[in-house]
Every structure is written in structure tokens, then in C-alpha cells.
Amino acid sequence: MPTTQTTKINQLLDPEHVRIGLAEPSKTAVIDALVDVLTGHGAISRLDDVRAAIFAREEKMSTGVGKGLGLPHAKTPAASNTVAAFATTDEPVDFGAVDDVPVQILLLLVGPEEHKSQHVKILGRISRLVSREPLRERLLDAETPEAVIKTLREGEAALRS
């Protein structure tokens, strides 16, 4: 995976790390389920450490960034590279978001401390993408992981780096 500023979200995802229609009832359950999506990922050495880092970050401030987007993320030595998991939920989940809009689109991002600038750029990219209502609607309407990745790829192609 490239480690330059041009790393795309769709490059971080493969179908096995995308979930459609999670039916978890709470923020904690949704984040737990999303961390579990990374089970067996080659860049993750200790899933429990990833989970702890994600929840520690969430305690500092909600990662419900607005417009129905949740971005649980953390930096941890339990990740040897930047990795992502993506999900949509069946029902909106209260995330304590800055705009009070419940979350239905989630991107979990985790990586090592030394990938901090890449991490920040990717978080900014997904925020810019999901700020576009037509793209949000396409993500929520996607019926397969492949459709999610295609939607993100097309959305990113329309963004300026």
C-alpha cells in the first residue's frame, strides 16, 4: 500500500473488511463489531490492543463527526500499517455526534504512530467525501461490499487530492 499523501480510502478497503447493515443497537456495540471486522488482518498483531486504543480515543471526544458519519480511529503499535474497516448500519446509532445526527456510515481507521500524517489525511478525505449527500445516499443504498468500494473509488476520483 502506498504511504504517500495520495493514499485513497478505497485502497485501504477490501470486501472482507466492509459490512453492510450492521444491526448493533449502540455506539459501543457498533465499534466493537467494526473492530472485529479486522480479525485476522495481517497488519494487526493484537486485536484487543486495537479495541482498547479505539475506545480510549473515543473517550476523549466522540468520533461522530457529523452528517451521519462515525470515524472511530486510533494510533497503536498493534497495527504495523494503516488499515480500515467500513460499515453501514440498519438503523441510525446515537454517537454523540457534533451535529446530533445519529450515525449510519462508519469508517474505522487504525495505524501506527509513525503514519500519523497519512492517518489525518485519510480522515479528512472521508469527511470531505461523506459531506456530499448523493455519495452518502449511494453508500447507504449499497447492497454489497464491492458496491461500497466502487462508490468510494468514484467519489475519490471526483475529489481534488
UniProtKB/TrEMBL annotation:
<dbReference type="Pfam" id="PF00359">
    <property type="entry name" value="PTS_EIIA_2"/>
</dbReference>
<dbReference type="InterPro" id="IPR016152">
    <property type="entry name" value="PTrfase/Anion_transptr"/>
</dbReference>
<protein>
    <submittedName>
        <fullName>PTS system, IIA component</fullName>
    </submittedName>
</protein>
<feature type="domain" description="PTS EIIA type-2">
    <location>
        <begin position="11"/>
        <end position="155"/>
    </location>
</feature>
<dbReference type="InterPro" id="IPR051541">
    <property type="entry name" value="PTS_SugarTrans_NitroReg"/>
</dbReference>
<dbReference type="InterPro" id="IPR002178">
    <property type="entry name" value="PTS_EIIA_type-2_dom"/>
</dbReference>
